[in-house]
Request: fold
Amino acid sequence: MFTKFLNTQTKSISFASLILAASYFFSALLGLFRDHLLAGQFGAGNELDVYYAAFTIPDFIALILVFGAISSAIIPIFSSYLVNSEDEAWQYASNLFNIFLVCLIAICLIFIVFAPLGVALIAPGFSPEKREMTVTLMRIMFLSPIILGISNIVSGILQVFKRFLVTALAPLMYNLGIIGGIIFFVPRFGLVGLAFGVVLGGLLHLLIQIPAFLYSGFKYRLLFNFNHAGVMKTLTLMLPRSLGLGAGQLNAIATTAIASTLASGSIAVFSLANNLSGMMVNAFAVSLSTAVFPAMALAYSKDHTKDFEKKFSSAFLQIIFFTVPVAVLLFILRAQIARIVWGSGKFDWIDTRLAAAALGVFSIGLCAQGLIFILSKTFYAAHNTKIPAMASVATVALNIALSFLFVWLLAGHGVFYALMQLVLRLEGIDNISVLGLPLAFSIAGIAEALLLSWLLYKKFKVFRLRAMADSLYKIALAGILTAATAFLARQILVSYHIINLQTFLGVFFQLVFAGIVGMACYIGMAFLLKSPELETIRESFFRGGKGKIH
Reply:
């Protein structure tokens, strides 16, 4: 029964995206619980700084070697083999598994040996004691890219077979592993227990997908042929994408390095707020982009140009439709979210206010971050990985430059410092330099989304401008009214002394009430304005998952 459930195939793109969105939502809840435990257990201090710094290089390896290949190469190439011969498709998969496994093990072993040098580069502001602990955690965490590397190749192939349900469950298992590490390993092993939790999460991520993968017809062969045409094409396509992702991770490394020179806990504040913002992007933008990508790749391979354009255009607008209200509510309710998610245990009031402010700044670029996924995947579906890679490199350069600029401006206590304090309500907190990092990230993300949109329009003419302008007008109007409504709902509860904001339940009720009122306003306005994006969602729910991305 359970195996049959895991093997479920998803027949439509909209329903697949809803399954993925639901999974990402539950994964986000687990992620919030994970971060709640981390914040309460360690606070925004040295321990969490070490934990997040230790993540950077293992993440770098996993992204450039595996995620780049999956998003840009494995899905379209495996799809093209599958159209002609299932046997050839599985030969390609086996060859790829073996090559990636050997490469991942070799590279991770090298980085394990040279971990002290890596830590010196990513955290120059750390004390010798913090560096030593970071090295220990990082060496354990290098098991994770090997496991997640294989697991994500499995995920990519399962998506070709439209088995989105089981691939959507994998991130939940990953978070459960880390939560298990916090609850069971940290009391026994201390901070090192977090690293063991990360490895456990990777194992669970892989194991949950194995039954469905075998059921899909996987036939393993002991092949190791770099000259295989599919492998060569995979490497050709993934190199530019890996360059782009590598640039993005270099940006994360640069951000960590800058934050390590600021006040203790700066890495933790930035990372916690970035995690929560990223969860929102994953829940809506990544889920939809992941669901539509195989269909776009197939449409392009069959030269169905109009179908390719329609799928992109609809997915682009749906991402905006979903992320605008989320961004608005994150900004309006940032303090309430921060108090509920992080404001406990060793995470003190100043930490909470700084994290809330960082979350508000991240929300400015949330919609743009979501659009980057669908814009990049549209290029990948058309077997073009160079343009997104070049855009990513340019954006990273901008991000790093802006990070230095904004941190410097905020350290100077001038007009810019006063403006940020006023807008984000940070009176009484002297050191807010860390907020320069999310501000740079958001502005650079907006620049990248605009650049990719322009390049995509120049190359493929996929934007249906008149229809898009109408939808964007409706979404913008609904978003503005949502902001006003949520703000009023938040203030009414305080003005009439309906709740006690000194209690957890009072803050939680304020968050839920204002959030529900805001979302009700957004959905109501979308209904009154006859938003086509809302109609697509309605069809997906009420027609048994047969709604389509038009």
Residues 46-84 form the longest helix (39 residues). Confidence is low (pLDDT under 50) at residues 544-550. The chain has 22 helices and no strands.
